[in-house]
Amino acid sequence: MHQTENHAFLISNLNTLSNQSQEEEQESNMLAAQFPQRINPPVVTDQYHHSETIWRVILDIISLIILLIITIISHYVAKPFTRGFFCSDTSIQYPYENNTIPTYAAVILSICLPIFWMWITEFCKRSYFTWYPRRTFITRLELSETHVVYISPFVRNLYMLTVIFFYGYLATWVLTEIAKNFVGELRPHFRAVCNPTYNCSAVTSLNQFNSYLQYGIDYTCQNTDVTAVREARRSFFSGHASSIFFGLTWLIMYIHVSWSWRHLGILSNLFQVGLAILAFYIGYSRISDYQHHWQDILAGGIFGSFIAFFTFKFILNWHHYSTQFLPYTASHLPRTLPINQRNINYVQMNPNNEHEQIHYYF
């Protein structure tokens, strides 16, 4: 009898202790929820305190100037391949039409629109977003052994975006000019511009109609406008298409990376679709104006888009392009933090300088 009572008493005590431990665990969990765990500060690397010399800027400018000089020589000085033609070739018998999109308009759209868009976006982020880091990412620019300038992320971003964009644009332009001169494909309006001395309408023999006519031997151009005749031999691939698709593809990818805030909804996608429509419209206009063959537009569009993707992904390194617009840096924290975990100030000694403290603001 006593053993049964003792056994029941022990079971009752064990249940009481179990309930108490569960209550204590619940209280500790509630207390822990009120005080979140400390976030470990990011590891200090060269990405956060970047040092450059003035020679980096000088070399960038020299590289762009070299590309520009090569482009100008290829466009105005180099002679294209003088290709002949067949009288039976109907693809070069179209009339000459004025450009729907002039060359200067294509240049403005492919250069000024992306640059203006990127600069306005950077200025807006710099002005209106208080979470833009000001001290975490610092670029140290050495002008000389005694003069040092510290560049803010905002200035560094504008420099990187502008320089790399112009590098990709000039690379696209010079490669397009090289292809035009080496291939020497005749434009659809070549015969209307050239006005060859060989009269194909007077040919009666089928053999002569299908024979290849060489320039300087079988025919010459009666048009005295050397520049117009030269341009009529530079159809492949389209310079309008390559430059427009480079600039607008770059801008589409920039919008994809920079306009990533959820409260914008599909506004960024709307702009991207509009830019794609503009690029395709300009490409289609080159075909309807008899300025290019369809394969010229296709090749130019693919080539310009590829150069834009290559420069944006591998040279600008968009994979590490964080939401704060900091090229060549990776965020060590999630993009969104709870309110009670923000504005935390961590202080850590710089391993490169024991007397310097590095502050992290989140």
Instruction: Sketch the major β-sheet.
Output: 3 strands, mixed
Strand content: 5-15%
Number of strand elements: 7
The value of Rg in angstroms is: 33 Å
Q: How is the largest sheet built, in terms of strand order?
A: 1-3-4
Structural class, from helix and strand content? mainly alpha
Number of domains: 1
* Helix residue percentage: 40-55%
Query: Kindly, what is the distance between the CA atoms of the first and last residues, rounded to a whole number of angstroms?
Result: 68 Å
* Number of discrete helical segments: 10
The unreliable regions are 34-48, 132-136, 320-362
Task: Spell out the helices and strands N to C.
Answer: HEHEHEEHHHEHHHHEE
Mean pLDDT across the residues is 78
Tell me the overall shape: elongated
Question: Which descriptors would you attach to this protein?
Answer:
two-stranded antiparallel sheet; disordered C terminus; mainly alpha; single chain
Structure description:
The chain is mainly alpha-helical. The strands form 3 sheets. Strands 1-3-4 form a 3-stranded mixed β-sheet. A two-stranded antiparallel ribbon has the order 2-5. Strands 6-7 form a two-stranded antiparallel ribbon. A hairpin with a 5-residue loop joins strand 3 and strand 4. Helix 4 runs antiparallel to helix 10 and helix 8 packs parallel to helix 10. The longest helix is centred in the first third of the chain and has 33 residues. The C terminus is likely disordered.
